[in-house]
Amino acid sequence: MKNPQISVIMPVYNGEKFVEESMNSVLNQTFKNFELIIVNDGSKDNTLKILKKYKDKRIKIINNKKNLGFANSINIGLRTAKGRYIASCNSDDISHPKRIEIEFDYLEKHPDIFLIGTSAVFIDEAGREIRRFRKYDDHKLLAWRLRKSCSIIYPSIMFRNQGFFFDPNLGGATDYNFYYNL
Protein backbone atom coordinates (compact mmCIF):
# COMPACT_ATOMS: atom_id res chain seq x y z
CA MET A 1 0.00 0.00 0.00
CA LYS A 2 1.40 3.36 -1.06
CA ASN A 3 0.03 5.88 1.45
CA PRO A 4 -1.54 4.07 4.41
CA GLN A 5 -2.96 6.10 7.27
CA ILE A 6 -1.91 3.41 9.75
CA SER A 7 0.90 0.87 9.98
CA VAL A 8 0.00 -2.17 12.06
CA ILE A 9 3.16 -3.87 13.30
CA MET A 10 3.01 -7.55 14.22
CA PRO A 11 6.18 -9.29 15.42
CA VAL A 12 5.97 -13.07 15.30
CA TYR A 13 8.19 -15.89 16.49
CA ASN A 14 7.02 -19.49 16.12
CA GLY A 15 3.44 -18.30 15.91
CA GLU A 16 1.94 -20.95 13.66
CA LYS A 17 -0.78 -21.79 16.18
CA PHE A 18 -2.47 -18.36 16.30
CA VAL A 19 -0.95 -16.05 13.67
CA GLU A 20 -3.63 -16.75 11.07
CA GLU A 21 -6.47 -15.82 13.41
CA SER A 22 -4.57 -12.74 14.53
CA MET A 23 -3.88 -11.63 10.96
CA ASN A 24 -7.52 -12.16 9.97
CA SER A 25 -8.67 -10.00 12.88
CA VAL A 26 -6.52 -7.17 11.50
CA LEU A 27 -7.33 -7.70 7.83
CA ASN A 28 -11.08 -7.75 8.57
CA GLN A 29 -11.13 -4.37 10.30
CA THR A 30 -13.85 -1.86 9.37
CA PHE A 31 -11.05 0.67 8.70
CA LYS A 32 -9.23 -0.39 5.53
CA ASN A 33 -6.47 2.18 4.88
CA PHE A 34 -3.59 0.44 6.67
CA GLU A 35 -0.56 -1.67 6.01
CA LEU A 36 0.15 -4.78 8.05
CA ILE A 37 3.88 -5.15 8.65
CA ILE A 38 4.67 -8.62 9.90
CA VAL A 39 8.18 -9.17 11.17
CA ASN A 40 8.89 -12.90 11.26
CA ASP A 41 11.65 -13.12 13.84
CA GLY A 42 13.48 -16.23 12.63
CA SER A 43 10.60 -18.65 13.28
CA LYS A 44 11.53 -22.33 13.16
CA ASP A 45 7.96 -23.62 12.71
CA ASN A 46 5.52 -23.11 9.81
CA THR A 47 4.91 -19.41 10.52
CA LEU A 48 6.58 -18.14 7.34
CA LYS A 49 4.68 -20.65 5.20
CA ILE A 50 1.39 -19.42 6.71
CA LEU A 51 2.33 -15.77 6.16
CA LYS A 52 3.26 -16.33 2.53
CA LYS A 53 -0.11 -17.83 1.62
CA TYR A 54 -1.79 -14.43 2.11
CA LYS A 55 -2.08 -12.36 -1.07
CA ASP A 56 -3.42 -9.14 0.43
CA LYS A 57 -1.58 -6.06 -0.91
CA ARG A 58 -1.73 -4.46 2.55
CA ILE A 59 0.63 -7.11 3.96
CA LYS A 60 4.38 -6.60 4.06
CA ILE A 61 6.43 -9.50 5.40
CA ILE A 62 9.91 -8.93 6.77
CA ASN A 63 11.78 -12.14 7.45
CA ASN A 64 14.61 -11.96 9.98
CA LYS A 65 17.07 -14.74 9.13
CA LYS A 66 17.74 -15.26 12.84
CA ASN A 67 15.85 -14.44 16.01
CA LEU A 68 16.58 -10.81 16.98
CA GLY A 69 14.03 -10.51 19.78
CA PHE A 70 10.77 -8.65 20.31
CA ALA A 71 12.05 -5.06 20.58
CA ASN A 72 14.42 -5.35 17.62
CA SER A 73 11.64 -6.81 15.50
CA ILE A 74 9.26 -4.00 16.47
CA ASN A 75 11.96 -1.45 15.64
CA ILE A 76 12.44 -3.03 12.20
CA GLY A 77 8.70 -2.62 11.67
CA LEU A 78 8.81 0.97 12.91
CA ARG A 79 11.59 1.82 10.46
CA THR A 80 9.51 0.34 7.62
CA ALA A 81 6.20 1.96 8.63
CA LYS A 82 4.67 4.49 6.23
CA GLY A 83 1.53 5.29 8.22
CA ARG A 84 0.88 8.48 10.19
CA TYR A 85 -0.09 6.22 13.09
CA ILE A 86 1.34 2.97 14.42
CA ALA A 87 -0.92 0.25 15.79
CA SER A 88 0.44 -2.81 17.53
CA CYS A 89 -0.78 -6.37 17.44
CA ASN A 90 0.98 -9.50 18.57
CA SER A 91 0.73 -12.76 16.65
CA ASP A 92 -1.52 -14.32 19.27
CA ASP A 93 -3.90 -11.39 19.71
CA ILE A 94 -7.35 -10.82 18.27
CA SER A 95 -8.42 -7.25 17.56
CA HIS A 96 -12.01 -6.10 17.81
CA PRO A 97 -13.35 -5.45 14.27
CA LYS A 98 -13.69 -1.69 14.92
CA ARG A 99 -10.50 -1.27 16.93
CA ILE A 100 -8.46 0.54 14.27
CA GLU A 101 -11.37 2.74 13.20
CA ILE A 102 -12.13 3.83 16.76
CA GLU A 103 -8.49 4.51 17.66
CA PHE A 104 -7.85 6.38 14.39
CA ASP A 105 -10.94 8.57 14.84
CA TYR A 106 -9.94 9.37 18.42
CA LEU A 107 -6.39 10.41 17.51
CA GLU A 108 -7.67 12.47 14.57
CA LYS A 109 -10.03 14.36 16.90
CA HIS A 110 -7.42 14.80 19.66
CA PRO A 111 -4.16 16.11 18.17
CA ASP A 112 -2.80 16.72 21.69
CA ILE A 113 -2.86 12.97 22.46
CA PHE A 114 0.18 10.93 21.37
CA LEU A 115 -0.73 7.37 22.39
CA ILE A 116 -3.93 5.55 23.22
CA GLY A 117 -4.76 2.04 24.33
CA THR A 118 -7.82 0.02 25.16
CA SER A 119 -9.15 -2.43 27.65
CA ALA A 120 -8.60 -6.09 26.85
CA VAL A 121 -9.92 -9.54 27.58
CA PHE A 122 -7.30 -12.22 28.20
CA ILE A 123 -8.29 -15.61 26.81
CA ASP A 124 -6.78 -19.06 26.98
CA GLU A 125 -5.92 -21.27 24.00
CA ALA A 126 -9.53 -22.42 23.76
CA GLY A 127 -10.85 -18.84 23.65
CA ARG A 128 -12.21 -18.84 27.21
CA GLU A 129 -11.97 -15.63 29.21
CA ILE A 130 -9.29 -15.66 31.91
CA ARG A 131 -9.47 -12.05 33.08
CA ARG A 132 -10.06 -8.50 31.95
CA PHE A 133 -7.65 -5.58 31.73
CA ARG A 134 -9.20 -2.18 32.44
CA LYS A 135 -7.91 0.89 30.65
CA TYR A 136 -7.45 4.19 32.45
CA ASP A 137 -9.04 7.29 30.93
CA ASP A 138 -7.48 9.78 33.32
CA HIS A 139 -3.93 10.65 32.22
CA LYS A 140 -2.94 11.74 35.74
CA LEU A 141 -4.03 8.41 37.21
CA LEU A 142 -2.28 6.58 34.39
CA ALA A 143 0.96 8.53 34.98
CA TRP A 144 0.76 7.73 38.71
CA ARG A 145 0.12 4.02 38.04
CA LEU A 146 2.99 3.81 35.55
CA ARG A 147 5.39 4.53 38.40
CA LYS A 148 4.31 1.26 40.01
CA SER A 149 3.43 -1.06 37.12
CA CYS A 150 2.68 -1.19 33.43
CA SER A 151 -0.90 0.03 33.04
CA ILE A 152 -1.12 0.00 29.24
CA ILE A 153 -1.54 -3.21 27.31
CA TYR A 154 0.84 -3.25 24.35
CA PRO A 155 -1.31 -5.09 21.76
CA SER A 156 -4.02 -2.42 22.11
CA ILE A 157 -1.98 0.72 21.48
CA MET A 158 -1.96 3.18 18.62
CA PHE A 159 0.37 6.15 18.54
CA ARG A 160 1.65 8.87 16.25
CA ASN A 161 4.53 7.82 13.99
CA GLN A 162 7.14 10.33 15.12
CA GLY A 163 10.36 8.34 15.18
CA PHE A 164 10.16 6.66 18.57
CA PHE A 165 11.73 3.23 19.07
CA PHE A 166 11.83 0.51 21.70
CA ASP A 167 14.96 -0.16 23.76
CA PRO A 168 16.11 -3.71 22.90
CA ASN A 169 18.30 -3.96 26.01
CA LEU A 170 15.47 -4.28 28.52
CA GLY A 171 14.24 -7.83 27.99
CA GLY A 172 10.54 -8.10 28.84
CA ALA A 173 10.15 -4.49 29.95
CA THR A 174 10.49 -2.82 26.55
CA ASP A 175 6.85 -1.71 26.30
CA TYR A 176 6.78 -0.44 29.88
CA ASN A 177 9.96 1.56 29.31
CA PHE A 178 8.54 2.97 26.06
CA TYR A 179 5.40 4.28 27.84
CA TYR A 180 7.31 5.56 30.82
CA ASN A 181 9.71 7.52 28.63
CA LEU A 182 6.83 9.04 26.66
Distance between the termini: 29 Å
Query: What kind of sheet is the major sheet?
Result: 6 strands, mixed
Series of secondary-structure elements, N-terminal to C-terminal:
EHEHEHEHEEEHEH
Count of helical stretches: 6
Global geometry? globular
Q: Going across the major beta sheet, what is the strand order?
A: 3-2-1-4-8-5
Q: Approximately what portion of the residues adopt beta-strand conformation?
A: 15-25%
Question: Secondary-structure map with pairings?
Answer:
Blueprint: E1 6-12, H1 19-27, E2 34-41, H2 47-52, E3 59-64, H3 70-80, E4 85-88, H4 99-109, E5 115-116, E6 120-123, E7 129-133, H5 139-146, E8 158-160, H6 174-181
Outline of this structure?
With 182 residues, the protein is an alpha/beta fold.
Overview of this protein structure:
This protein is an alpha/beta fold. Helices cover 29% and strands 21% of the residues. The two termini are 29 Å apart.
Descriptive labels:
182 residues, alpha/beta, six-stranded mixed sheet, two-stranded antiparallel sheet, 6 helices, 8 strands, 29% helix, 21% strand, globular
